[in-house]
Amino acid sequence: MKRALVVFCVLLSGCEVSGYKNLPPNEQAEVQRVEAYLNNIKGMRASFVQIGPDAGHSAGRFSYVPGYLRLDYIEPHPMELVAGNGRLVFKDMANQSITHLSLKRNPLGLLVHYPIRFGGQILVTDARKGQDSLQVSVAEANNPSQGLLTLQFADRAGHLNLIGLQGVDVRKNRFSVTLSDEEEGSDIPKSEFKFPSE
After folding, report:
1. DSSP category for residue 38
2. How far apart are CA 112 and CA 100, in angstroms?
3. Is the full-model pTM beyond 0.70?
4. What span, in angstroms and rounded, lies between the C-alpha atoms of 37 and 139?
5. What is the pLDDT of residues 8-43, one digit of tens each?
6. SS3 of the chain: helix, strand, coil, percent, to 5
7. What is the dihedral of CA 121, 106, 10, 66, to 10 degrees?
8. How would you label 48-74 residue by residue, b for 16+ Cβ within 10 Å and e otherwise?
């Protein structure tokens, strides 16, 4: 009943709800594990496959350190995406176009806060523990309709590994990113997260 009330308040956007205190204690503990994992991961590289709003597929290399994300697309053609410091910059090598976006209303902005604290400006809408898996969904607390991000993890022997992202933006466009061949503990220099330029 309590969760139904919180969801109702979120849908109305009339209640001041943030964080994850609305969740049962066992789910709160899982959210705390996710916070610790994302804030303490030294660096992560992986291969990715992305499905965009138009059901188009793309693939490439994923790099992450707390506060920054980089996607180097190989398919369908070379492109770069770098997110951090409140903005996202995307460069298409095919035509040399560069797109600048604010992360304020983009679900990826919820992943590149640093330090990540699921409280205050972030609302945890759901936490689900499965067999060897965990997923946590988050939104902007003051305006959840601006977008939703679901973080997907493998959870084996008490150790988390980020394996996927699913998002819905303010225009209800959906995307998913599936990771494979993850390498954690990489010492990734911050220079790799320099925004693309013309």
Report:
1. H
2. 16
3. yes
4. 19
5. 333 333 444 568 988 999 999 999 999 999 999 989
6. 20, 45, 35
7. -40
8. bbbeeeeeeebebebbbbbbbbbbebe
Which 3 state secondary structure label does DSSP give 67? Answer: coil
Its sign, for the CA torsion 172, 8, 35, 110, is positive
Provide the CATH topology of domain 2-183. outer membrane lipoprotein receptor (LolB), chain A (2.50.20)
Residue in 63, 92, 62, 61 with CA at minimum distance from that of residue 191 = 63
- CB neighbourhood size of 161 (10 A): 16
Distance (Å, whole) CA 83 – CA 100:
10
CA distances from 189 to 43, 66, 116, 180, 193 (A): 9, 12, 20, 21, 8
DSSP state of 192: G
Give the residue carrying structure tokens 């979120």.
10
In tens, the pLDDT along 149-181 reads 999 999 999 999 999 999 998 888 999 999 999
**CB-count exposure of residue 187 (10 Å: 0-12, 13-18, 19+):** exposed
